[in-house]
Each structure stands twice: as structure tokens, then as C-alpha cells.
Amino acid sequence: MAKTAIITGGSRGIGEAMALKLGELGYNVVINYRSESSKALSDNLAAKISSQYGVETLVVRADVSKYEDCEALVKATVDKFGENIDALVNNAGITNNCNWIDIKREQYENVINTNLMSFLHMTHLVLPYMVNHSSKDNQCCIVNTSSVGGLTGVINQADYCASKSGIIGMTRALALEFAGRGVRVNAIAPGMIMTDMLRGVNQDELNALAATIPQGFIGDVSDIAGALGYILTAPYLTGQIISPNGGFVLQ
Ligand code: NDP
Predict the structure, then answer these.
(1) Residue 180 Cα to ligand 1 middle (Å)
(2) Catalytic residue positions?
(3) What's the rounded Cα separation, in Å, for the pair 226 and 238?
């Protein structure tokens, strides 16, 4: 019987690649997005996952920085697929890239609410369903997208780094809390990956960024989807932070 997975921020970039991976692994996939402009992208992705992997999909627009929207997302999932939610991929994220003098309170609150509070909201809402049907032989999984920004500091990204470090803390704490109840909790901390987050950057800047990476190139969304695939199929892995980053945090 197909399992059910929810992915937040699944419309494009890393989330899109991870949604495809969930389908490939046989999950029915609930794809969440926020912007009206991403509706068509999400619908097309859902159709592609269904036709390619023969699983069912559901597309739900919700601003996961808000608890009520998270509740509606989980309710829509349960209404369509039932109460056995097997995987939650918390992936929605934004960045400000602004210095700590000029940044406005609303800007950094938005980053914390989107990147960290949404992860707490979603896990709070989904875990009761998971513990009801998980066991050692039927494990449920939570996978959180952190960042190398959560492992090191990044100039002009204090809010982003705070959110991504917070994700690492919650991942370890929840992994411990639920290890004995069949729920594994892990995080992926990507290095620089080519998505819309980097597409605004011109070629010279991209070359300069690539030069800061020991392996010398910017990663691809498939690197992160691959890490997700590993985590979902690794029954003895919990509380870990997997970081595909080209050697970035070794320096
Ligand atoms: P993109 O900007 O390409 O995609 C961001 C995704 O998050 C979109 O699906 C977007 O939805 C969604 N989203 C943003 N805010 C909300 C919200 N309030 N509610 C629901 N969905 C929301 O980014 P990436 O794919 O690059 O990033 C994905 C994750 O990976 C993020 O958590 C990011 O911090 C992390 N990351 C990325 C790195 C990179 O180099 N790209 C490096 C390290 C970590 P919509 O399409 O509707 O706007």
C-alpha cells in the first residue's frame, strides 16, 4: 500500500526535486506551495509525479509560516489520504540577505516564521498521526531542510542562520524524543545549490561563489534529492545532519 508524504515548499527548486524523489520511492505526495504564481508549477509537478511513478498527488496552497494554514494543510492531507502520514519533509524557506543595521523587524520575523516556526508547526501537527501508526518495522520519517548557514555563519544572514541552526536543534531534540516510537528525524544542510535563490546572482558572482567551494562548483538539486532518498531508506539513521556541500564547511 502506498505511503503518504507531505512536502512544504514543494513547487520548485530543491522542493521540486525532493517531491519527485518521494514519488519515485512510492509515496503519495502532498505538494505545498505559497505563491499564486507557483500554482501552475505545482499542478504540473503533481501530474508529472503521478504519471511517472503511478502514485497519487495532492496540491495544497498554504502559507506555512501561519499555524492555521499548517492545520489546513494537514487536514487536506488526512481528508484525501487518511490518518497514516508516513513522511514529512519540511523544506519551505526564504532568505533576506540584508545587513543587521538596515534590516526591518518584519523582514527577520518573516524569515524566522517561514524557516523555523513552520517546521515546529508542521511537526507539532503531524507527529500525533505518526506515533499512532509507526513502529520499529514501520517507521515514519521527518526530514528538515537546514543549510550550511546553520553550521557556519554567513554575512548578512543572521536571521537565516538563526533559523537554520534552530532547525538542527529541533531535529536532534525530536529525534531523541521519538526514537523509541518509530519516528526518525533527520536534517539535510545543503551547501550552495542552483535554484531561484541563486538565479538572481550574475555569472561573475556565481564564479566567485564557486571558487569558495573546495570542489569548485555549485551543487544541483539532485544532490539534495539523493540525500533525501538515502535518509528515507536508512532505518538506523536518526538525529543526523547530512550536508552535501562540496567541502564548504571543511575550511
Ligand atoms: P526556492 O526559492 O527555489 O523555493 C522555495 C520554496 O519554498 C518554494 O516552493 C516556495 O513556494 C516555498 N515557500 C517559501 N515560503 C513559503 C511559505 N511561507 N509557505 C509555503 N511555502 C513557502 O528555494 P530553494 O529550493 O533553494 O530552497 C529550498 C530550501 O533549501 C529552503 O529551506 C532553503 O533555505 C534551503 N537551502 C537552499 C540552498 C540553496 O543554495 N538553494 C542552500 C541551503 C539551504 P512558492 O513557489 O509558492 O513561492
Answers:
(1) 31
(2) 160
(3) 17
Residue bearing the bigger pLDDT, 200 or 45:
45
What is the C-alpha separation between 124 and 208, in angstroms, rounded? 40
Cβ of 144 less than 6 Å from ligand 1: no
Q: What's the 9 CA to ligand 1 centre distance in angstroms?
A: 6
197: which 3 cell numbers?
A: 535563490
| Mean pLDDT for all residues in the chain | 97
Q: Which of 195, 198, 205, 220 to mutate to test the pocket of ligand 1 (most atoms within 8 A of CB)?
A: 195
Summarised one tens digit per residue, pLDDT across range 168-192 is: 999 999 999 999 999 999 999 999 9
Q: Are 53 and 26 in contact (CB under 8 A)?
A: yes
What helix, strand, coil percent values describe the chain, rounded to 5?
A: 50, 15, 35
User: Is ligand 1 within 6 A of the CB of residue 190?
Assistant: yes
Residue range 42-79, pLDDT digits in tens:
999 999 999 999 999 999 999 999 999 999 999 999 99
Amino acid (one-letter) located at 62: A
